[in-house]
Structures are given as structure tokens and as C-alpha cells.
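Entry for the shared binder. Reason: the reviewer on the internal report wants the predicted structure included alongside the sequence.
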Amino acid sequence: MTVSQAAYHFDVSERTIRRWIESGKLTASREDGQWTINSADIPADKTPSHADIVSTLKQQISVKDEQISQLQSALDQSQQLQALAESRHQAEHQQLAEMRGRSVLQRLRAVFVAD
């Protein structure tokens, strides 16, 4: 059994499984850089089936898909706000440019006299 399978089986993190191996709580051997847990440490009736693993992975993918959707929505909103801010900035810049073309008396009238 691999470290990830053991983590799933015991419902702990892979790091916890590695700690258990280091402490001797689980016996394991290292093959090609991967730990293989001794099956004698795992009750046979508790070993997760491939269907259980696939089901868990599908659930994890579903959660990640939802997170991606939420992040995409937040990004879209952020881009819309950015576009609005830029549009407002351009409009204000245009108004200032128009005001600069006026005389001081015309500027004062624009401020103090209502249309």
C-alpha cells in the first residue's frame, strides 16, 4: 500500500503516515524512492477499494471545479470593476481637459451657476 492509500485508509495526511513510518508505528520499505506500507499493519477489511479511491477523487475534483468557478466569477467581477474605474477616470480626465480650455470666468460660472 502506498503512502497516499494509507493516508486515505487512516483518514490522516500523507505527512502523518511518513511520521508513523519514522516512529515505527507502521512498517514500510522504500522501493524506487516510494514508501510501501507493510500490509500486515493494515486490516484487510479496511483496505480501500479502487472504487472508493475513484469516488473520493471524483469528489475532490468536484470541489476543485466549484472553487475554480468561484474564482473565475471573482476575477470577472474584478475585471468589470477595473473597466468601470478606467471609464470613470477617462470621463473625469475629459472633463478636466474641457475645463482647462475655458477662461477663469467661464470656470467660475460653471461651478457657481446652475444650468
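Summary line for the report: Helices lie at 3-10, 14-23, 50-100, 104-112.
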